[in-house]
Design goal:
- This protein has a domain at about 5-90 and about 455-499.
- The chain is built from 40 helices and no strands.
- The protein has helices at about 5-20, 55-60, 60-70, 70-80, 80-85, 90-95, 100-105, 110-120, 125-140, 145-150, 155-160, 165, 175-180, 190, 195-200, 205-210, 215-220, 225-245, 250-255, 260-265, 270-275, 280-285, 290-295, 300, 310-315, 330-335, 340-345, 350-355, 360-365, 375-380, 385-390, 395-415, 425-430, 435-440, 445-450, 455-460, 465-470, 475-480, 485-490, 495-499.
- The longest helix is centred in the C-terminal third of the chain and has 25 residues, at about 395-415.
Length: about 500
Amino acid sequence: MILTSAAVVAVGLGAYGLGRVYPPAGPSAGTVAPAQRYVSSQIGEADVTLGDTAVPQLMQTDAFELFVHDPSFRALAASPGFKALANQPQVMAALLSDPAAFAGLAGHPAAFAGLVQAAQSASSLGAKSHQASAELLSAVAGHPSAMEALASHPEALSAIMSDASAFGRFANNAKAFSDAASNSSALQQLASDKAAMSALLADPQVFAALAANAGSFKGLAGNPSALSAAVKSAASAARQFEAAGISNASLAVLANNGAAFGILAGQSKALNAIAGHWSAFAALSGHPAALQAIMSEGSAFSKYANDANSFMLEASKGAAGSPMSHNAQAFQQLASDKAAMSALQADPQVFAAIGNNASAFGGLAGNASKFNPQLIAAIGSNASAFQNLANNANQLSSAGHALLSLDAHSLVASAAASGILNAGGAKAALGNPQAFAAMSANPSAFAGISQNAAALATLAANQKAFAALSAQPNLAALLANPSFSAALNQAGVSQSHAD
């Protein structure tokens, strides 16, 4: 069964948002009554392995209760197409970040498949485009007016970026640039724009900044529209982070990890916790398998908040009966990392922070490998600023989306410059840059979805429902949780139940 209307979902979300997870300011009414704590008759002692509590813990959350007790959510969750999406938590996280784009593409299966194929070809450029994004954001942050002036003339910007070293000579001779621009067919429109030229003449050192990273920027010059959009996104991100008090020195790291920060921006409580315990998180991020296990079972690890020695001992053994037993090798490697263990012993309250925000971290678990030590350290070096940003939902969302847009447009520009995208592919990618970047990050998973007619039909028919879900952090975290699909199965949510 596929939901064709989001009306009942929206009502359910309204009741949810005012009730269980977000305490009401006063009496409230809704169509979804508070449900009793969910208990599945299918789970017995033999079904739950000690040390692997992720699924039963997820089933005890308020968000999961809503799914299994509310008819509208149950119908959506029971459709074969939804199950296919839930089996791919990184895909689910990506589509929740931009439901309109993915739903629109899913309504045209051939276009969806074509974009996936282009993304598969471009996936090898990820590291290169991320580095270019980092250098571009640094240049924009240092020379915002001049770079935005260039972005207003995409053809001129592309011409300069394609040979940035040659333009470096104008860094100390603004008049020479003005004369050269007037005599260049590629730059004549720029030269006739008085406001843009005033910005460039006031800051000719922008050419030195571009020349310093000429190699990377040449790799972005193949598609003027994508390049211009990347610069504009970088300018937006720079303004947001500057307003939040984030240092320019950290911007390059954030841009190099745009997708990861975009994911964090969707879970402000997790970002706040990371900023408050960044040294311990940096230690854990060097061991992504262990970090994913901890994020997946946050409540189970809370007991170590006041007993760091027990954590060290049980991690070193992968002790049976501990929440580490199913990932023994990963935790043994963590235990053998003296620097990491010292950081955790110095701040064992990190486990309480994760446990107190188990839902948020559970939704991030599938992307744990993206949260590298460099990103965590950048957050830590601006801890107070990021905690303040985490408490400003609109600003955080704007900053996260700006970084994702920069990341996406840099990838499109890099792919076009490398000849990977033809004109049609570039046009499709530019029309859906963030979807394209998400597909490039997980090409195999999206390739599978592109061949699943039921999954595409469910996504296409339920755009408003997915948008409503994405607007609620706890529900978005639930759907992106790696244990969500297994929890649905344990709860017995099936097509027959929905019918």
